[in-house]
Amino acid sequence: MPDMKAGFGITAMLFSFLMAGCASREPLCVVPAVDLERYAGLWYEVAKYPNWFQRSCASGTIAKYALREDGRVDVQNQCLRADGSVIEARGVARVVPGSGNAKLKVRFGWSPLAGDYWVLGLDEQNYSWALVGHPSRKFLWILSRTAKLPLKTFGEVVALAEELGYDVSRIELTSQTCAPEGGL
Q1: Which CATH number is 4-173 given?
Q2: Are 107 and 91 spatial neighbours (Cβ–Cβ below 8 Å)?
Q3: This prediction's pTM
Q4: Sign of CA dihedral 93, 132, 154, 174
């Protein structure tokens, strides 16, 4: 049986390569600033644009961010396949200078390529949800500190995505029925 971590690492590397593209329309706006200490920790994926590198994820998609002493951020993504096996990817993010910490470059595994991770929306008061995307608008994630967002909040985040030029009809919900308690 192949090593799940190695397989997901290769997928993450290819993901990084694809994430290097640029948007051909008006540039995306990001939040003015992100406090990385508050952003660190466990996030649940509530919804996303379907993408090829997460096609094996059936449920329980979570991410954990941890600040490093060198100013970068450790990234640990995890999901469950339909058979219950775990897929994991680990990476390191660096802040894009002058972005107020709202734009990160993330590199997974041994890949020399880094993908864009832009914080497009954020509950600035509690850091309870985040809207994350890519400047090409080909990738989108709605994240929450809890496995589910209140319906009203979810609607507001989706409306924000639409205002930013995303086709919200493409958003699909993420099953969190099997998310590990406490996360990673």
Answers
A1: 2.40.128.20
A2: yes
A3: 0.82
A4: negative
